[in-house]
Design brief:
378 residues, DNA Polymerase III, Chain A, domain 2, 6 helices, elongated, alpha+beta, 3 domains
Length: 378
Amino acid sequence: MKFTINRVSFINELNNVLRAISSKTTIPILTGIKIVVEDNQVVLTGSNADITIQTTLSVTNGETALTIEEPGAIVLPARFFSEIVKKLPDKEVTIEIRDGFQAKISSGNAEFKINGQDANNYPHLPEIENAATIAVPADLLRDVIEQTRIAVSKQESRPILTGIHVKFADNQLTAVATDSHRLAQRKVALPTGDQTYDVVIPGNSMTELARMIADVKDDVQVQIAENQVLFQFGNALFYSRLLEGMYPETSRLIPETADTTIELDAGKFLAAIDRASLLSHQGHNNVVKLTIDPDNNVANISGDSADVGNVEENISADKIEGAKLEISFNPDYMSDALKSFGQTTVLISFTSPLRPFTLVPTEDQENFVQLITPVRTF
């Protein structure tokens, strides 16, 4: 096996594949990166058993400056190999395997020799055959992930909640996540044809996918099988396992009525929350209080720490309606929710001091909602 390639192009693809490789794995060969050299392309594969990423560098792509002298395959220690390639002196790098499973990596005057493993021992990629394909614009998919992953649970005690519940049905994509303290739900119109899918994709997988498609301009092709989902874009394949089990019914958690509502600028409210949390983070319970007085058209936010002091700030609102209310909540949950809306006006609806409340954008109230459970302080 021997090939020469532009080092920058090679590093870019290495970085993508490294997203799937973990140093903590019960399968030692998965700490390595699989390199398969064919007649006209080099295929890189990385996996941690949950996520598998495969990317292809082609001879026909002029930017890669790829020349192949001899096909072959090997598995090399991923982190060590990538650090070597990043620190090489020349703009091109040559990788060669002659005897057994030792790789020679050369660039300019530098030359490394590292031990690899037999590529035949690397686990095979999941097979997704005859599955229908749904095309999702990359920027839309990225937004849906970013707006919902904040509510994914980090507690392994309920594994199903560590994923994002994704449904394709009736020409609509619906994504929901909840950790039982907050919930994020996003709906977008999407041509799905006759296809109907209802799956739960690990939150970690979706986070890595969102990072990988940050600069992708075209559609992402989605294929779903019994226990795997495949996202295909550019020259990359991104596989993720699916979580087993039934995701809880979340639609009943979203209140349909409200006793108190407030409309305000998400960015300005976020800044006030960040100021209030400076003190709440110093306390034991990390809570801020929102007081709403519709009669006087006043909203106030406050936070305190027994050790440091307190903060109080009046909030400018576009509209306040309903009954008086005092409610306490985790400011980090509120901050995450507000960030997901960007620079827009949000409508926050409350039913009582102890019932979950919702945030929706005033211009698209049906398709995007964040829900937060308040904190009991008495």
